[in-house]
Amino acid sequence: MKLSLRWNKTSLLFGAIALWGVLLIGCVSVNRTVLAPTKIPGATYVGTKDCTQCHADQTDHFKTASHAKLAIADPKVGNISCEACHGPASLHSKAGGGRNNIVNPKKSPEACFTCHLDKRGEFSLPSSHPVKNGHVSCVDCHDVHEGNAIKGTGAALETMNETCVKCHTAQKGPFVFEHAAVKEGCVTCHNPHGSVNQKMLVARDANLCLRCHLETPVALGQINANAIKHTGESHNSRLMTGTCWSAGCHEAVHGSNANNHFRR
Length: 264
Prior knowledge:
disordered N terminus; two-stranded parallel sheet; mainly alpha; 30% helix
């Protein structure tokens, strides 16, 4: 009985080590994501070579793109990275092009949601960019054919803010008194894909401001009068009517040209 028990423990130990080794080798050796791509009725895969004949502007730099790591589990066809997002291209290639025989992620965000399932959920939240309505596209913010899909990361000279201010020009400035949070990045306060809070804010009410301005509160529901001096109506009662900005105090939250307390 003791021998059998010892043998079972030994077997489990060596079995666990062997399984861990297999998983480790698999993770190290695989550097591409294998997926089930978007389907097009009646179409088959033709490979990336067909795409390069007409779309050289996109394919010439595609090796540098984050999405170049995508692959389809169909080794018979070869390299079909383009078709991982655009669907099988035989009908498109045979017709010499066209819009109705290929998937355009700019028009159909479902092509992106095939992999980015969490983003489909975020775009369904009460406050979000209108991607699902077709008014904004994923490729308006992400470069899917060249370089890092998320701009402003790593050693990139362009910041993520540059992507946002292409549309949100009023928040770009320059301001005489610039809010330091803007320098940290728009995503410090906003979730660009969607949020349960208004204006895609990552937190509600004054809780958003207090994530950085920790010196302000001394206790729950109280304001440190020594840190911020106010006259007339108390700071605490003003906060009860709204957030730090909607209560009418610091309404120029991105920056102000008139007041260093971000008032207009």
